[in-house]
Design a protein that fits this description.
Methyltransferase, Methionine Synthase (B12-binding Domains), Chain A, domain 1
Length: about 210
């Protein structure tokens, strides 16, 4: 018999109550119920991304402290890695495209990029995830060493990308570069000789895989 996924509204309220009191045990249990009863795509689009959106709203409203933000980030990061490593979800394909993913220097918000990386891996790509605040020389070296078919750079601020315009443009000569996140616009992408990714991670997976298949 199929077990219906835990209803979102009640579970989300329970999760936020746990966050406000730093109750790791309740938060872990609640996230387990929310994530593991759903597919990866549903877990990310129905649970993780809305939760991150509300996290940003509460932060702007002054309802959360830096400690709360760190608590939530570490909690989600741990569960995303665990969820993406479920048996049968590794997405390993011997001849899938190699995609390197990173946030440029100064960009510390990488949870949406991590979510995208997991979805991309499930689609068959071989992902190489560097994460937040990665120096450009390290990104360039990793792209060369991994013989990346594409490099995805994500940022919440356009200045995190434009400040590295010279290095990114040079990187784009060797590897196709894709930019994503709130800091990525068509103008920014064109200035970097890069491709602009859709903001929705599921749509971005389809876009990237289509471009690489050409």
């Amino acid at each position: 018999m199929t077990i219906a996924p835990t209803p979102l509204s009640a579970a989300t309220e329970r999760l936020w109550a746990a966050v406000e009191t730093y109750d790791g045990e309740v938060a872990d249990t609640t996230l387990a119920d929310l994530l593991w009863q759903r597919s990866l795509a549903d877990a990310i689009t129905q649970v993780v991304l809305p939760f991150l959106g509300e996290l940003g709203d509460r932060w702007e409203q002054g309802r959360l402290s830096v400690a709360h933000e760190h608590f939530v980030s570490n909690l989600l990061r741990r569960w995303l890695w665990a969820f993406g490593g479920r048996p049968g979800d590794d997405g390993a394909v011997a001849d899938g495209p190699v995609v390197l993913l990173a946030c440029p220097p100064g960009e510390r918000h990488d949870l949406v990029l991590l979510s995208f990386s997991l979805l991309l891996g499930e689609s068959g790509a071989r992902t190489r995830y560097l994460g937040a605040d990665t120096p450009m020389p390290a990104i360039v070296a990793a792209a060369r060493a991994s013989q990346a078919d594409a490099v995805v750079l994500a940022a919440t601020r356009d200045t995190a990308l434009t400040a590295e315009a010279t290095a990114i443009s040079r990187l784009a000569v060797e590897h196709p570069v894709f930019v994503a996140g709130r800091g990525a616009t068509q103008g920014v992408a064109e200035g970097l000789n890069a491709h602009l990714m859709p903001h929705d991670p599921v749509a971005a997976v389809s876009f990237l895989t289509t471009v690489l298949a050409r």
